[in-house]
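Newbie here. two chains, one complex. Structure please?
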Amino acid sequence: EVQLVQSGAVVKKPGDSLKISCQTSGYNFADFWIAWVRQMPGKGLEWMGIIYPGDSDTRYSPSFQGQVTISADNSLKTAYLQWSSLKASDTALYYCARRVRYSSGWDWMDPWGQGTQVTVSS
Amino acid sequence: DIQMTQSPSSLSASVGDRVTITCRASQNIGTYLNWYQQKPGKGPKLLIYVASSLQSGVPSTFSGSGSGTDFTLTISSLQPEDSATYYCQQSHTTPPTFGGGTTVEIK
């Protein structure tokens, strides 16, 4: 069974750094892109960026470029999302999801992790 | 970015009712359209991919249709466990974008 298990909820102060994780199992980690998606309180879903663990190719949404860093560790089959200096506006639920892609170009996200709540407050 | 507009934003229906949710894209996306279900406290779950293909394990009461700019998710017979928020998502152009969500409540 393919599973994505995310690290637990965290509370940080503005200006703190943070790295959250998404540990995978049940498939060849290097062969599938992993996406990160933000859900702000009471809001919808926003795609942040994506990484291909096989060669570390990383793409970001323009809205998140320069704001976060996505990385992966093949030996641990784990993807990461990190911030160097958190802001109160980073308070949200963050999900990782595996991207499944057909050669014809269609793709979708399945499965998703359970989410990591990040709260940034002074 | 491609804008995805869902309607309605919420609905209330009875068990056994037929429910339809629509999703409109701001430009032609072919069939690059997926549907997800999200229950409180959980990550989204894939229901439909490529506009009309049912994900394995998803009840056949769910179906998707459409192409181009207009898409529909239909629940043919609403069940209590279908209470959730539903999102459409386009995968035609990066960045992928989601509709605003439709919350389905059981009367």
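Moderator note: Chain B touches chain A through 23 residues (CB under 8 Å). The longest strand of chain B covers residues 19-25. Thread marked as resolved.
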